[in-house]
């Protein structure tokens, strides 16, 4: 049997690249989708994933037509797109009182519209083939809210609403749709937090550390497995116990 084909948006970021390698290790052919990067960044990524079945494709998740053309090319090349991980995301943190419309729109366009743009273009093929795994990377701040992140928190909460609705639509078609909500992880986004605040955050996490990208990647890999066919519509928190709910 040929390998399942997976697209990971935001695929050359710290979290995305780890997800790519984990899925490849589990036997997928992986497409790391990301914006066109500098040659140095792209070289570093290719060196990181050397030995893994991971290929880079340049693309913009905010471009619906571009997403459609990409999916069409990949389906022609591989025969199918079986797995989609929506991991592309940005922040534009500022209190709502000071937030400019562009700062709201930019985050919603990438973090939420991007989920629609890619998913809408893969879902038809998944339904027709009777198999698919979709995992949306949300955030603990989509569950709890965060000061200065009305745009980001709204987008990430909306992402799980999208997950639950689509899961109901495609549950009988062999397609599962789930969310993973990371807590604070050792990524470039978190490294921008001032050191004193970062130390406070670590002290508040019950397991006593921030997460590593591999912690998130393993959760994504679990939900993307063929054997996870009875799990759909869930939000899996991976946050070290920072936020625990029923």
Question: What's the quick description here?
Answer:
The chain is 48% helix and 15% strand. With 246 residues, it is an alpha/beta fold. Strands 3-2-1-4-5-6-7 form a seven-stranded parallel β-sheet, sandwiched between helices.
Architecture overview:
The chain has 246 residues and is an alpha/beta fold. It has one domain (5-238): Rossmann fold, CATH 3.40.50.720. The protein is built from nine helices and seven strands; from the N terminus they run E-H-E-H-E-H-E-H-E-H-H-E-H-H-H-E. It has helices at 14-25, 39-48, 64-78, 101-129, 141-144, 150-170, 188-191, 195-204, 213-224; strands spanning 5-9, 29-34, 54-58, 83-86, 132-137, 175-182, 235-238. It has a seven-stranded parallel sheet, sandwiched between helices. Strand 1, helix 1 (14-25) and strand 2 (29-34) form a beta-alpha-beta unit. The longest helix is centred in the middle third of the chain and has 29 residues, at 101-129. It is globular, with a radius of gyration of 17 Å. The mean pLDDT is 96.
């Amino acid at each position: 049997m040929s390998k399942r084909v997976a697209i990971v948006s935001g695929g050359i970021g710290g979290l995305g690249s780890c997800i790519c390698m984990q899925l490849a290790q589990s036997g997928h052919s992986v497409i790391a989708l990301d914006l066109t990067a500098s040659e140095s960044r792209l070289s570093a990524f290719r060196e990181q994933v050397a030995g893994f079945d991971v290929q880079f494709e340049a693309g913009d998740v905010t471009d619906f037509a571009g997403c459609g053309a990409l999916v069409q090319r990949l389906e022609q090349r591989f025969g199918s797109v079986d797995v989609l991980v929506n991991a592309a995301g940005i922040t534009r943190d500022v209190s709502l009182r000071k937030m400019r419309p562009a700062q709201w729109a930019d985050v919603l366009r990438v973090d939420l519209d991007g989920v629609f743009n890619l998913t809408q273009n893969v879902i038809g093929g998944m339904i027709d083939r009777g198999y698919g795994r979709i995992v949306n990377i949300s955030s603990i701040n989509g569950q709890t809210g965060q000061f200065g992140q009305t745009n980001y928190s709204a987008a990430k909460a909306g992402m799980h609403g999208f997950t639950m609705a689509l899961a109901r639509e495609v549950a009988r078609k062999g397609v599962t749709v789930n969310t993973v909500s990371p807590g604070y992880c050792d990524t470039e986004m978190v490294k921008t937090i001032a050191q004193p605040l970062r130390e406070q955050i670590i002290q508040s996490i019950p397991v006593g550390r921030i997460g590593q990208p591999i912690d998130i990647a393993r959760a994504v890999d679990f939900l993307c497995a063929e054997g996870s066919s009875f799990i759909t519509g869930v939000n899996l928190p991976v946050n070290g116990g920072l936020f625990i709910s029923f």
